[in-house]
Amino acid sequence: MTSKMYFIICVFWLIPFCAGAQNRLPIIDMHLHAFSMDEIPSGTPACPGDQNILVPTFDPAEELDFSKSFKCSNPIFAAKDDLDLRNKTLAALKKYNIRRAMTEGPVEIVTDWSKAEGGDVILPGVAFGKRKEKSIEELKRLHANGQLAVLGEVYIQYRGHRPDNPRYEAYFALAEELDIPVGIHLGEGPPAAARFPGYEEYRASMGSPFLLEDVLRKHPKLRIYVMHYGSPLVDEMISMMFTHTNLYVDISCNNWSFPRAQFYDALKKMIDAGFEKRIMFGSDQMYWPDAIGEAIKSIDEAPFLTDEQKRDIFYNNAARFLRLSEEEIAKDHGQ
Predict the structure, then answer these.
(1) How far apart are CA 149 and CA 223, in angstroms?
(2) Do 229 and 201 contact (CB within 8 A), yes or no?
């Protein structure tokens, strides 16, 4: 076989795979992070939820050692450094046709990622509820400069505080005033958070969706979504969404790093309760770029979802929540 003929055969063999990537319908990721790799060791493994993972169990007399917990056959690995994290994450967004990604992290890193992406994929998110808050004036300036599209991730639970704590009222009021969405963390933190360095203030009890009730009553025009759907308190989340029509959820992190059976049980419960139009896709990609593909796979393979429900989760619900124009939606679909 000549080299020319070999090349032609290879090209035709690859065409179906290239076409599959190009023809994938658009996705909106409502929960992505642009972090620095100085927070965890490079190459740290993580086990996807479809590999029968177990929650770590430690003797309280022993040191916390997660290396014993990563026993899955096909783990994914954290990036090498900041540049590797950025480049691999942006490559994954392109690979899976993710047209918009709510990206939270240090403002300078999010801005760098946006410039590197070169388009309009990165929706800049700015957090509050951290140990050091940005002032209302600073947030207004960031919004005016196009560096604040979503107020989130809201880390109030990691401070051990209720969402209706008076110290946060000005932030919810600002989001309502600027008409920008809020994404708040309610749910599990890292495994063994009670012993995890830096998480001394985290309280599982502050993850109840019911704690949002007074915030939503006070700000009826606020667009707000609960990250991680308040897991594992799904029944509370259903009750809150039933009562408050401006409340959405994302399914981030739980869709790839939690036991798949647990995630599917929660997702199906929300679908069966009639909330297929208020569930949004998110990856919660932090340090593991391959988490994006794993999160997408969990929806692709969900046996109880119809094709229409998958499209709602992947794109349509977030497009409605973000109030995308017909022109923006058409552009996302290559029209």
Answers:
(1) 12
(2) no
Listed in sequence order, the residues at least 6 apart from 262 whose beta carbon sits closer than 8 Å to its beta carbon are 49, 232, 254
Query: Could you tell me the fold of the domain covering 24-51+68-332?
Result: TIM Barrel (3.20.20)
- Phi and psi at residue 67, to the nearest 5°: -65, -25
- Residue spans of the domains in the chain: they are 24-51+68-332
The first and second tokens of residue 175, run together, are 């989001």
Mean pLDDT per 10-residue segment, the chain (335 residues):
38 40 87 96 94 81 76 93 99 98 98 97 97 95 98 97 97 98 96 88 97 98 98 99 98 97 98 99 98 99 99 99 98 93
> 33 with 103: CB under 8 angstroms?
yes
CA distance 15 to 144: 45
| Residue spans of alpha helices (H) in the chain | 3-23, 82-95, 107-117, 136-144, 169-178, 213-218, 234-243, 254-257, 260-272, 291-300, 307-311, 317-321, 326-332
Question: What's the CA gap between 100 and 80, in Å, rounded?
Answer: 25
pLDDT tens column, 214-245? 999 999 999 999 999 999 999 999 999 999 99
Q: What is the pLDDT of residue 257?
A: 95
Query: Helix 82-95 to helix 291-300 angle, to the nearest 10 degrees?
Result: 30
Contact 234, 271 (CB under 8 A): no
For the chain, state the CA radius of gyration.
Answer: 20
Structure tokens at 313: 């989760």
Contact 219, 250 (CB under 8 A): no
Please tell me the predicted confidence (pLDDT) of residue 69. 66
Full-model pTM: 0.92
Sheet with 182-185, edge to edge strand ranges: 27-33, 98-104, 122-128, 150-154, 182-185, 224-227, 247-250, 279-280
* Encoded amino acid at 4, one letter: K
